[in-house]
Design brief:
This protein is an alpha/beta fold. Helices cover 22% and strands 31% of the residues. Strands 4-3-6-1-2-5 form a 6-stranded antiparallel sheet, covered by helices on one side. A 6-stranded parallel sheet has the order 10-9-8-7-11-12, with helices on both faces. Strand 1 and strand 2 form a beta hairpin. The relative contact order is 0.14.
Length: 240
Amino acid sequence: MFKATVSAIESISDDIRILRLIPDAGYDYKAGQYAELTFDGFEARPFSIANAPGADFIEFHIRGVGHGARAYAAQGLKVGDEVMVSAPMGACVYIENCAKPIMAIAGGIGLAPIKAILEEAVRHKHGAPVYLYFGGRIESDLYLHDALEALAADYGDFTIVTALSEQDDGRHRSGLIADVVLEDFKDLSPFRVYIGGPPAMIEASVPGLLGAGLDVSCIHSDTTITMARPDNGDPARVHG
């Protein structure tokens, strides 16, 4: 465990906060990993690290729901508070030296690990097209628009597509974000896919992605899913 101090808190919507923590010691991790955070009086809870390695801080995106540690992190935590951070965990990380185009799919604050992976891809000058498909229920779920646009501009060959599943405001596509991907790409076999979001969203998305020709070894998520492949019924285990 590492001790870290809250250096900044940004409220970007009614229920989403961005936390920046400065560890007391060096903190090495890979883009896409997560850590367990322990707040005083609460059990440790996992949160995805939302920035690529190399900064003097680590960033987390917190949605305040229900009670307990997540609600406290979204409502009660203050600048200057101390937080305990576990060693980094998870194998859903940016794959260096991969020539495949990247298809990043994010739902809500599932953007957090995806953002870190995309920052790392841009930093490494990935060398192939990058796509971010970012979905939410309503418009306020689609946060960090300006930062994502700036990241895309830095890279150049970087396309952002947004969609809403429960609201039609004329500015975004309509529907579940994985369905929007499949509307645009009938063949996903050339891609490496990173997907972040609620487990139910990921589980519902994976069969269609595999059905569009995506190789199971080229899909990465911090949620482990065991399911039948749509073509022959054999189990496909998606992880890391």
